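LAB NOTEBOOK - FOLDING QUEUE
OPERATOR: T.R.
BATCH SIZE: 2
PURPOSE: Compare the predicted structure-token outputs for two unrelated chains run back to back under identical settings.
PRIORITY: normal
REVIEWER: second-year student, initials M.K.

ITEM 1
FIELD SEQUENCE / FIELD STRUCTURE:
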Amino acid sequence: MSEMTFPRAIELQKSFNEARDWGKDTKFLKDFLLNICEEAGEAWSIIKWIDGEKQKEIIDAHKDKFEDFIGDSIFLVFKIAWMLDIDPAKAYEATLQEYEKRFPADKIKELKHGNPLAGGIDDKGE
């Protein structure tokens, strides 16, 4: 398979959907959003209630399940992007720029996380 780019992924998604007569009707959007939650839940169930070294061990032993989770999640995100005519590369770039401001590297390195309720930093501007 060739190197995947955002435009190529959207084109593949478009072709996949059109081959199945899956249009851009948003009446099932909520179901795709719930499906993303379901995928996250499946990944979480592999490592739930496990800490530190044991978690790393389980992840390493079941990396294929996490690869499947990533693939399924990306498929769903690109399907939603295609349905809503959203450029995922543009959305990603905007989010990355926002996160650069919200989570300054120097402060995150010092505080270790972005949860202000637990002593971290999130300059969300609220």
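ITEM 2
FIELD SEQUENCE / FIELD STRUCTURE:
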Amino acid sequence: MKARSGFTLVEVAVAGMVLLLVLGVLAMALQYFFRGIGNLEMRSDALTLAVLEARKIQAMQPLPEPFSAQREDTIMGRGYSVRTSLTWAGDHSRLLTVRVFRGDSISVELSREFSLRNQEAFP
């Protein structure tokens, strides 16, 4: 009998299945990677909104009386809810908390304490 060169049908089928398995795992990894990048961009946008809101309150001299407010804002075409509260944090200081969220998936909270004696933010 002559030896034949090449692959058998079973070998080709097994190689094809292994290739499909590897490609499927790679596709899932890429999907999670790109979803993660999207979440990171949304968190960055939410943090930008929180910092802008905190700076706006900090620029008010003197600081306003304690309050709580919520508004909707948009950045980069994405809608976010911005919840701001200024509360007493002691006899001579106030605590500013800005929470920016988008649905249930993205949430950023920024807090700063302000001294009323010299109107400066504590680091």
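REVIEWER COMMENT (ITEM 2): The two ends are 86 Å apart (CA to CA).
FOLLOW-UP: none requested
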